[in-house]
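Design review, sub-item: ligand-bound model
Attendees: FS, YL, KQ
YL presented the inputs for the adenosine-5'-triphosphate complex:
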Amino acid sequence: MSSASRRSSATRKTPPLPKHHIRPTTPFSTTSFPKHPPSPATTPPSKVKENVTVTVRFRPLNGRELSKGDEVAWYADGDYTLRNEFNPDIAYSFDRVFGPATTTRHVYDVAAQHVVSGAMEGVNGTVFAYGVTSSGKTHTMHGEQKSPGIIPLAVKDVFGIIQETPGREYLLRVSYLEIYNEVINDLLNPTGQNLKIREDSQGTYVEGIKEEVVLSPAHALSLIASGEEHRHVGSNNVNLLSSRSHTIFTVTIESSPGEDQGEEVTLSQLHLIDLAGSESSKTETTGLRRKEGSYINKSLLTLGTVISKLTDGKSTHVPYRDSKLTRLLQSSLSGHGRVSLICTVTPASSNTEETHNTLKFAQRSKHVEIKASQNKILDEKSLIKKYQREISNLKQELQQLKSGMVEKQNPVVPSQEDLVNLKLQLEAGQIKLQSRLEEEEQAKAALMGRIQRLTKLILVSTKNTIQPNILEKPSHRRRHSFGEDELAYLPDRKREYMVDDDAGSIDSELSVDGRSDATNLDEIVKDFKRSKRRGMLGWFKLKVKSYITLSYVPFDLHLICYAQ
Ligand SMILES: Nc1ncnc2c1ncn2[C@@H]1O[C@H](COP(=O)(O)OP(=O)(O)OP(=O)(O)O)[C@@H](O)[C@H]1O
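KQ shared the predicted structure:
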């Protein structure tokens, strides 16, 4: 093969070699998860073994490599095999090998979609990109506006799955952290520095990490973008924007069949990880960069050791504790949930050795066994159930408050004498009445606000086929439309997201009252102004009429007080 033709592509189609297909979806069973003890009410786990999905993605030779005369040293030989150009005996097979022309969308469909859909069904999932500096990890995980990466595609998919799952309610929370020089920083909360890893009976977790409930893809992406602003990035001689830290973006997904149904809630975590790249002596660095590089290399070395120990079949001790990265990945690597490893490589001959090391790591990782199983929790442990119960209680409370107010307003036609007495009573008790009315109004507004806030947090599909009549009345749930625009993912964009106003289905129910109140109030104000013109007697005549026609008497009382 000539240099020129080698340079043109790192992909070749030759007769098929033994193929390694992506494993079929594993039937779900039950397991536990960090921070949430397993429910005794769950069915016994029927764990089915599968392996980590391991794929390799080539990036094209870049300008720097071409200008220094680099050749293609490694190439994709079909969809599953990767070969060394100069030594045909060196070949590796993986679940999939992506040539340099492959789109990230395709990588997502093959390497990440099954992990994301599993997470939506309660199976923990981890997708991570591994490779040397400048091999394309960030390009793969984050992408750019024109070519969104695995993280934005997964976020969009999560909301798409909610939309395609009528009759189920979801609550999503996200967190975003970096491990920089072996220190954990919260990227969603700049004051959350040097956070500690804690362990409970269910595994490791980061103490004090901020979790934000997300309401739409744009909302989640804006959080990532704002988190990215705090991530440590710097340039080395091969990458102008080299990641100096490992990042873990976690989506916690709770789902339940609905407010009044007894079925357990499923809970899972989806970890999307962009590792920093290992650096060799060729990566010329000094000072701070070198220090960062040594932390990065050390933690990746520990990751390699952990993978080796997990797969050699004889180790009794796995050194998860030797790095923050492996401690946080402990639950995933020790088999709780689905894992997809995307190794990124350059075909460049100048990087032959580094690419070979990545491939050896990928090969070992293939033998890590995992048991994908579904997490279920009891109602009381679940945030979504807590919110659902709270909404229902608040609605009852609101109803009681409203009916209490209406009872007090029963329109009775008073006699002339009653009216005089009433006026005297009103004069005596006007301040008390006024403040009580204000209190009731405030309580009502507070209840409405709480119901509205809680309702917005729970996500449902607009395709509600379970209750078709729901379309006939204003919805009580937040509605979403998940367009491509949601992926307009600008890292420099500040948090300009919403809690927007399309949500307000509960508004529509509540605003019915709001509008009628306002209408009555307007009328009363008009009456009041007219009566002022006519003098007090006119006002009293008018009020007698108002008592009969208006149902919302407290406002009348209120105005009478002012009218005196
Ligand atoms: N598959 C690809 N197609 C086109 N360009 C790519 C691809 N992969 C990476 N690149 C480009 O190569 C450069 C380096 O990629 P990237 O920053 O993703 O590397 P990295 O592995 O994350 O590096 P580091 O570990 O230093 O952060 C970027 O300019 C990126 O746009």
